[in-house]
Design goal:
single chain, mainly beta, Sortase, Chain: A, globular
């Protein structure tokens, strides 16, 4: 993480429902299971420090919105504009993922918080697919202060400001940091990251962007 003195750490509370994993498909044809979290019996952990983690000054929060289905996510700094589909947990507790045949697609955990409402909303997208780079291919290049825009069915746009970007090894994923509930409106963007090792099951890390609601505007 950045050595700046004015920095904000991701929250450390428990998200009781989103428990374990998501399967993502890399550019190679072999299937990949990306572990986005381990069972939440793990102890609370501090974000790691090092070159893979970046954080910025604490951001100012906007007033949260009532629940409304998100329909599209935009990341201006990455030139991303992707429709959002609903994701749920399967019978084994794994979070579904967007269709790997669709490169420009993201999904949100529909049984959790809607982006812009009080709490922590979860959005997942592929880093790549068998046909090339996908919606979150550049997530690891974001910097604190970058904006993320979520268009909602109520014709409002929730604008989030990124305050930390972390990369975690799959074997050391801090579920309580990433999925923990928050009092204000926050957003987590998740995708694959780190080295790709086919023999070990694919990508060996996860990239997580932490963001907070900064403003709201009409569509």
């Amino acid at each position: 993480m950045s050595s700046r003195t004015a920095r904000e750490r991701p929250p450390r509370r428990l998200f009781a429902r989103l428990t374990v994993a998501a399967g993502l498909v890399p550019a190679a044809t072999a299937a990949l299971v990306l572990v986005l979290g381990s069972p939440l019996a793990e102890p609370l952990a501090e974000p790691r420090t090092g070159a893979a983690a970046r954080s910025g000054p604490a951001s100012t929060a906007a007033a949260a919105l009532p629940a409304a289905r998100p329909v599209r996510i935009g990341i201006p700094g990455l030139r991303v504009s992707a429709p959002l589909v609903d994701l749920t947990l399967d019978s084994t507790g794994k979070l579904g993922v967007p269709d790997p045949a669709e490169r420009n697609l993201a999904g949100w955990y529909r049984d959790g918080v809607t982006p812009g409402s009080p709490g922590n909303a979860i959005v997942v997208a592929h880093v790549d697919t068998p046909t090339g780079p996908a919606a979150f291919a550049g997530l690891d290049t974001l910097r604190p202060g970058a904006t993320v825009e979520v268009r909602r069915a109520d014709r409002r746009v929730a604008v989030f400001r990124v305050y930390a970007i972390e990369e975690y090894e799959k074997s050391d994923f801090p579920s309580t940091l990433v999925y923990g509930p928050t009092k204000d409106a926050q957003l987590r963007l998740l995708t694959c990251g780190g080295a790709y090792d086919r023999s070990a099951g694919g990508y060996q890390a996860n990239v997580v962007a932490f963001a907070r609601l900064a403003s709201v505007r009409a569509q």
